[in-house]
Amino acid sequence: MRMINRHPGRVSATLLGLLPFLLIMLIYSLASQERLAENPNDKLLPGLEQMTAAVDRMAFQEDRRSGDYLMWQDTTASLQRLGIGVTIAASLALVIGILNGALPLIRANLAPLVSALSMVPPLAILPILFIVFGLGELSKVMLIVIGTAPIMMRDVAQRVRELPGEQLIKIQTLGANTWQVITRMVLPQVLPRLIDSVRLSLGPAWLFLIAAEAIASTEGLGYRIFLVRRYLAMDVILPYVIWITILAIVIDQCLRLANRRLFPWYNAGGH
Amino acid sequence: MSFITVNNLWKEYGDLVVLENLNLSVKQGEFCTLVGASGCGKSTFLKMLLGQETPSRGQLLLEGEAFPGEPDRNRGIVFQRYSVFPHLTVRQNVLMALELEQKPWLGKLFGRARRSALEKVDAMLTSVGLEASANKWPHELSGGMQQRLAIAQSLIMRPRVLLLDEPFGALDPGIRKDMHDLLLKLWRETGTTIFMVTHDLKEGFYLGTRLLVFDKVRRDPHDPEAFGATITYDLPIGQADSKLFEDINESVAETARHQAA
Ligand SMILES: Nc1ncnc2c1ncn2[C@@H]1O[C@H](COP(=O)(O)OP(=O)(O)O)[C@@H](O)[C@H]1O
Ligand SMILES: [Mg+2]
Q1: Which residues of B lie inside 8 Å of A (Cβ-Cβ)?
Q2: How far is CA A72 from CA A52, A69, A167, B137, B205, in A?
Q3: What is the predicted pLDDT for the residue at B252?
């Protein structure tokens, strides 16, 4: 049988999916054991013990200096920035994207600007943000907004223009004015697509968040990773990276589920 | 006075002549079927009736006045596909038409107004045979049911003109017969003036009161874009014999071959 026609069953698909993870863990633990056998104080490839100890210290014990649980503090600080940034970016994308997609006059006026903005490398203007908005929360949130909003705006506008022209004509024959076309036809059909767009933008959003935290911050997941780097504290860095990955997956899946729940017609192929 | 008047109407896209020298006069309540080779401008003619396109030359008049330049609630349309809104259930699709009319800003009805609107909606759904599917999503409907919904949605506005562009083209032949009966029934009940494009000449001969054949009378073998189509036959339905049917069929097929070449 041709390879393209061979499909795994449910169980074997799960096993096949797990295999690479197990392999990476196996290779890592072998390498780690080897290095630790040579030098018990080795920092480069910490074993499970060192990492659990580090997590215990960061997450479940008060910090000696500040009395805070650092990992939770970092998590809430980062998630707050990410949440505010992505929410602002998505709202902007929705409004500008719909206007651009649905109104030719606005599109002529705004679309070139949005295209140009989406080409600006956001990290290149991070210094400007620090100068203009200071080193506080605002500049970090702004970086996420500037980094993700223009692309989402283009995406939403594109999705609006992909709606069948027949629908646009049809709703006009039902007497709809421009406002009604937007609120009753365009907006409800674009919302699930916006959620998809947000899911794709979360990757870049994390990137900008961690970059901003690494450069100027006093708390946050990115800040912590770059802080402990000075002490080669891989036992903290690795669990933090895994934690960030888990958070990213959970957020992504929550959005996916929300999309399914809120827009049953969309996910059943009704578009 | 005639309801719709077409005088020396031309439609061109750049060098492409689509329609030439169209003349027509339609009374209120007529049911016209339009047939012709594909690409000879039937949809373009409907688009002009709808206000989606404007004539290049000539006059297109509704009760002596120029046609409005954009689609409005007086002219309903049913396309071959994509005529219903996928994010609304069957009932909501039809209800929306009434909501848009009564609530320019909110676009939604509540309380008593909504209940009385829903009564109308349900009556309309019953008359197109969709009462059992009222709470389904459009993607759960068959092609024929989706077209019933599209027709219901248009007719609840009581449009003065209903335009149908190959509405049954994508349906199975068996279902098409039911749809013909439904359309004739609704036409008799509402008295709406109907223009229906079909690629099925038999359908054109059977349905409605008047058959309009779009065809090219002049052909330039070296430049197929040079001449447009016009109305070559304008026949009251029920009076055409089989010889005429053959003639028209042959001529239309000939145009289609040239168009394809
Ligand atoms: N917007 C347009 N721009 C240029 N050419 C067009 C446009 N719309 C239709 N046409 C052309 O006009 C001709 C008639 O099209 P149409 O009215 O859709 O034919 P029919 O519905 O009879 O099959 C076709 O050759 C088509 O390519
Ligand atoms: Mg057509």
Answers
A1: 50, 52, 70-73, 75-77, 79, 81-87, 96-97, 99-101, 104-105, 107, 137-140, 150, 153-154, 157, 159
A2: 16, 6, 49, 44, 77
A3: 79
